[in-house]
Task: structure prediction
Amino acid sequence: MPVAETELVYESPYQLLVAVILSAQCTDKRVNMLTPAFFERFPTAEALAAAEVDEVFALVKSCSYPNNKSRNLIGMARTLMNEFGGVVPSSVDELQKLPGVGRKTANVVASVVFDQPAMAVDTHVFRVAERIGLTTKAKNPLDSERQLVKHLPEAVIPKAHHWLILHGRYVCKARNPLCHQCSITHFCRWFEKHNPA
Result:
C-alpha cells in the first residue's frame, strides 16, 4: 500500500485534532460527513472555546458518544487557547493534556501532522500486528505500541500506523479476513495457523 495516509479530511492541525477526537468508536466516513458543517461553525480553536455544549452536540450528535465528545471538544479548545496560545502542540505528552485526547489520539496527531515516530494503536492496528506477527501476545494497546516501535525503523513509524490500519479495515478484517486478497500471507502467522498446507 504505497499511499498510506489518514482517511480523515482536514486542512489544519486543529481540524485533524477535532476529527480524531470525533473518530473514537466512530468511522472516518461518518466523521468526514459531519466535519464540514462543524468547521464552518467553529473554524478555529478560539471559536470552539466560546461554544456552548448544546451547539456542539447538535453538530456531532450522529457520531458515537456525542455528549462526552461535545464536552471534550470544548474543553480541548479552551485548554488549547489558555495553555498553548491556540497552537496544537507537537509532543505526545503535551497533546495528552488536552481533554478528550488519549495516547492514541495524541500519537495520530503527532505522526500525521508533525511526522513524528509515534505509533497510534487502535483496534485494527492491535489486531493486524498480532495476526501477522509484528507483536506477540500484546496485553493492551500500549504493550502493542512498545513492541512495534522497538522493531520498526523510526523513519517508517508514521506510515506504519496507516499501513496497518488500512490493511485491517479493508483486507485483514476482524471477522472475515480476506486472505485470498492479501499479498502478505507468506509471512502471516495467523494465515499459517488457519490455513495449514
